[in-house]
Design goal:
The chain is α/β, with parallel strands linked by helices and 226 residues long. It has one domain: Uracil-DNA glycosylase-like domain (Uracil-DNA Glycosylase, subunit E). The protein is 46% helix and 13% strand. The chain has a six-stranded mixed β-sheet with strand order 1-3-2-4-6-5, with helices on both faces. The termini are far apart. Bound molecules: uracil.
């Protein structure tokens, strides 16, 4: 009897260990490829038909599969959906400049969005679209296991603060941008920082200095400690 209980306990512990242990780089690449396949075939999504009819691509994410920092935007724009790459249009140029300002190489981080298909006319994503694509983002976080997660814009901020168990700290992005929160994931604590969406610099010229200051936060060494 005792032996059976001990065996059961150790199986539960092993299962928990397997779920929280980071996978090898090859395993991560395979798991991320699986996400891509799942999104390509996401026929239940209201954005699926629009994507297929327009010959566009879903945008899953790109970057280092062992990245310490993950950036999460809103949804692909026209350029992104044409090329299947996140932040490769005008907002992407601003993001590249902000990364450079903070001394961070784009190839070392992972960049994705909550919604993986382009909403028509670049409208804001609907709650049901966020609910449909959000679980893919959670899978990406659990696979890559970044130490720092940056939300770019209010949609990813809200979704992630709920998932990281810090919804009680939620306020408007103009109040909490650049602040560091400690969120909870299946693999331990992470630093979470909400920031303005890079596109803001395109229509509010004066906002760039504030965005640069927020990006400077990423230079803090203690951000990367669990
Ligand atoms: N805006 C986003 O939120 N994501 C992109 O990939 C491009 C623009």
């Amino acid at each position: 009897m005792i032996k059976a209980i001990l065996e059961q306990d150790s199986a539960i512990l092993q299962d928990r260990f397997d779920k929280t242990m980071p996978s090898s780089k090859e395993e991560r690449t395979e798991q991320l490829r699986q996400i891509k396949e799942d999104v390509i075939n996401l026929k239940d999504s209201p954005l699926y038909e629009i994507r297929v009819k327009s010959g566009a691509h879903p945008v899953i994410g790109e970057g280092n599969h062992e990245a310490q920092i993950m950036f999460v935007g809103e949804a692909p724009g026209e350029n992104e959906a044409k090329r299947g790459r996140p932040f490769c249009g005008a907002a992407g140029k601003v993001l590249d400049e902000l990364l450079k300002y903070a001394g961070i190489e784009r190839t070392l981080v992972y960049i994705t969005n909550i919604v993986k298909d382009r909403p028509p006319q670049n409208r804001d994503p609907y709650p049901e679209e966020i609910a449909m694509y959000g679980p893919f983002l959670e899978r990406q976080i659990n696979i890559i296991q970044p130490r720092v997660i940056v939300a770019l814009g209010r949609f990813s901020m809200q979704y992630l603060m709920e998932k990281l168990n810090i919804a009680n700290e939620l306020q408007s992005i103009s109040k909490i941008h650049g602040r560091v929160f400690k969120g909870e994931t299946s693999y331990g604590k992470v630093s979470f920082i909400p920031m303005f969406h890079p596109a803001m610099a395109l229509y509010h010229e004066g906002s760039r200095g504030m965005m640069e200051k927020d990006f400077e936060t990423l230079k803090q060494k203690d951000l990367f400690e669990p």
